[in-house]
Amino acid sequence: MNSLFPNFVRRRFLSHAGSVTLSAGAIALLGGREALAADGPVDPKADTGILNVALGLEHQGIAAYTLGAKSGLLAKATLEVAVKFQDDHKVHRDALAATITKLGGKPVIEKSLEEYARALKAETLKNEADVLRLAASLELGATNAYLSVVPAFKDGALAQVAARLAADETAHWAILNKVLGGPLPKAMFFGS
Q: 7-178 belongs to which homologous superfamily?
């Protein structure tokens, strides 16, 4: 499958993950554990940078599902699932934006739907399978991006909070992959 996930976004996220990791305090805030956040160190500048890249991924995912819904290419049952997945991305977006704000940062603003349509080459979507392939590609890219930061945490509880986003993305990808008739992964490692 062609990866439609913008490589520059993935590289930016992974480069942040490799050189800078979220502080324990930021992950605790993201997980709704403000008391735990008070006990952990916070590096607001580094944390908000990483979280804003993740927020950008969520904005893109929401836009992709909007484009798919507006395309008229999705069957009613497929549209219902796409809207559910989009709702999950909105929850992620809201949690990320709230955490960035709590850290004193400014959440990255989403682009216009037209900008996302150009970046995602929405004009190439000709049928339901095209829309689903785009969604699956974005979900897999987000899965890999989120999973790349999980091993940086020594505290298992904090790694678990960080992995929640990756778990949602993985579930979305698995469902889309199955609907598209894709094979089960040969190993429990998702390649891009």
A: Ferritin, core subunit, four-helix bundle (1.20.1260.10)
What is the rounded CA–CA span in Å between residue 129 and residue 124?
Answer: 12
pLDDT at 146: 79
User: 28: number of CA atoms within 13 Å, CB side?
Assistant: 15
Residue 26 pLDDT class (50, 70, 90 cuts): low
| CA–CA distance, 185 with 143 (Å, rounded to integer) | 14
DSSP the chain: ----S-HHHHHHHHHHHHH----HHHHHHHTT-HHHHHHS---HHHHHHHHHHHHHHHHHHHHHHHHHHHTT-S-HHHHHHHHHHHHHHHHHHHHHHHHHHHTT--PPPP--HHHHHHHTTGGG--SHHHHHHHHHHHHHHHHHHHHHHGGG-SSHHHHHHHHHHHHHHHHHHHHHHHHTTPPPPSSS----
pTM for this prediction: 0.76
